[in-house]
Design goal:
By secondary structure, this protein is an alpha/beta fold. Helices cover 43% and strands 16% of the residues. It has eleven helices and 13 strands. The longest helix has 26 residues.
Length: 349
């Protein structure tokens, strides 16, 4: 296996990982360890190129620094990606090889489940490294983080509803959900239980059919989700979906979802403001999963109660961000960035 360092002016450490014997090509990016060891999930996708994968891991790892800081965790930001279709390329040998790469970081980076991965996959990595979380078994095992991630997003949906409609009650509200993976599916369950009506889309048409039956959801095409009429848009798939092309299509009053890096550029936050669409900063809205994983990394006793308290605190943080943004007449994204910057600066001092 070859592990080579990639030069970066923005990150503490970036590594390219390759093992030809199992078809592994991927990256590990450590953005910051100011608040603690870098933590963030392992994602596997059929990226179009290595450059695309590198760009993604750099953005995702930086986002984890913001997410962990916003959640008040003693963790820095990191992320890892593997290039390839998890349905065809993922094997125990490939996961073991990547586990050895994580182990080579000597605890500066902790990995966990993300897109294309499962708790069972984390168990395979754990055969080669102790720096893995999201396991189903063990003294501090935290399991699948998706339900907790969804709970935090659900809280964010209720927050933006309160600010835009004057009531957090979702009964009769329409939420358009992009992406029906583990997080998106759990969110749909919570929204349905709360009385919301759903419009859904996913690259997996079978999953869309299941959601139509399970939740009475209205299915739409992948590109059609942006122009549907709804109260709130919940992106729960890939990043960069809020951009100069999609924002003008939106017919919603708010955006609150689980996808990382939803804004394609900083200017897109202002585009949302100009359209009167309230944006719940993604790295705050989707912080539930890393809160759950943190109990394993930090070896927290009383996990359930600790997670519940942290989720409540995260909800309070979102409320403070949205309220301050309204007071200043600026995007919540700018306020959230300021909150994170102050947190990191205070710890570094």
């Amino acid at each position: 296996m070859n592990i080579t360092q990639v030069a970066s002016a923005t990150h503490e450490e970036v590594y390219r990982v390759e093992d030809a014997s199992c078809g592994l090509v991927g990256f590990i990016a450590i953005h910051s360890t100011v608040l603690g060891p870098a933590a963030g999930g392992l994602r596997m996708r059929p990226y179009a190129s290595e450059d695309a994968a590198l760009t993604d891991v750099l953005r995702l790892s930086e986002g984890m620094t913001y997410k962990n800081a916003a959640a008040g965790l003693r963790l820095g930001g990191g992320k890892a990606v593997i290039i390839g279709d998890p349905a065809t390329l993922k094997t125990p040998e490939l996961l073991h090889a990547f586990g050895r790469a994580v182990e080579a970081c000597e605890g500066r980076y902790w990995t966990a489940e993300d897109m294309g991965m499962s708790p069972a996959d984390m168990a395979e990595l754990a055969k080669e490294t102790g720096f893995v979380a999201g396991l189903s078994d063990g003294a501090f095992a935290s399991g699948d983080p998706s339900p907790i991630t969804a709970r935090g997003i659900f809280n964010a949906v209720r927050r933006v509803a309160l600010h835009q409609f004057g009531d957090a009650d979702l009964t009769g509200r329409t939420v358009s959900v992009q992406g029906l993976g583990n997080v998106g599916w759990n969110l749909c369950e919570l929204l349905t239980d709360a009385g919301a009506k759903l419009i859904v889309t996913d690259i997996d048409t079978g999953r869309v059919d299941e959601a139509t039956k399970a939740f009475g959801a209205q299915p739409v095409g992948l590109d059609d989700i942006y122009a549907v009429e709804a109260d709130i848009f919940a992106p729960c798939a890939i990043g960069g979906i809020l951009n100069a092309d999609t924002i003008p299509q939106l017919k919603v009053r708010a955006v609150a979802g689980g996808a990382n890096n939803q804004l394609a550029t900083p200017e897109d936050a202002e585009r949302l403001v100009e359209r009167g669409i309230l944006y719940a900063p993604d790295f705050v809205a989707n912080g539930g999963g890393i809160i759950n994983v943190a109990t394993e990394v930090l070896k927290i006793e009383g996990r359930v109660d600790w997670v519940a308290r942290k989720l409540d605190a995260l909800d309070d943080t979102m409320e403070a961000i949205l309220s301050e943004a309204a007071k200043q007449g600026v995007s919540p994204a700018a306020v959230a960035q300021d909150v994170v910057a102050k947190t990191i600066k205070a710890r570094a001092a």
